[in-house]
Input
Amino acid sequence: MARYRGPVCRLCRREGMKLFLKGERCYKDKCAIEQRNSPPGQHGTQRRRKVRAYGLQLREKQKVRRIYGLFEGQFRRTFAEASRKKGVTGDNLLQFLELRLDNIVFSLGFATSRAQARQFIRHGHILVNGDRVDIPSYRVRAEQEISVREKSRKVPHVVEALEFAKGRGIPAWLELDDQNFVGKVLELPSREAIRFPVQEQLIVELYSR
Output
């Protein structure tokens, strides 16, 4: 499957905020945003034109898509499903994204980034209710348990990620037993539980044009 292989720090600089794509590095002074908070490219530091409504909507969509590591087709399909579900489309969209297995593995601290979480899942390190699931986009349901396979609990990257996550904290809708490498979805995430700044209504407006 195709995936973005370019430098991820330029994605953060393009959006003008930390997207936390490189794990532990994003929390240090080496972060590209800390060093140079300007758009990438030869003319990145030059003054740009006033952004119109469409530009704001596009940037918001790109920001959310890059945070969760989805390609345009994946993101569009997720939005279409969210729009078919009863309720507020924007809230449904964020909830679907939060419930992706790769995001939950990252949020629980089993990986330092969503990209690393996808790799762990693909390699069979992650179990859902005791069964191996190797699909990063798998949507986890309430009351399901996510755990690290017993043979994988001594993998240095997993141990380091879990230790690092202790200082980062986990969302209130998740529960973690770090001694046994087991996490649980206590409830479906509400809009208030989304911790990073997102204006999801701009994304709804973009796809409604």
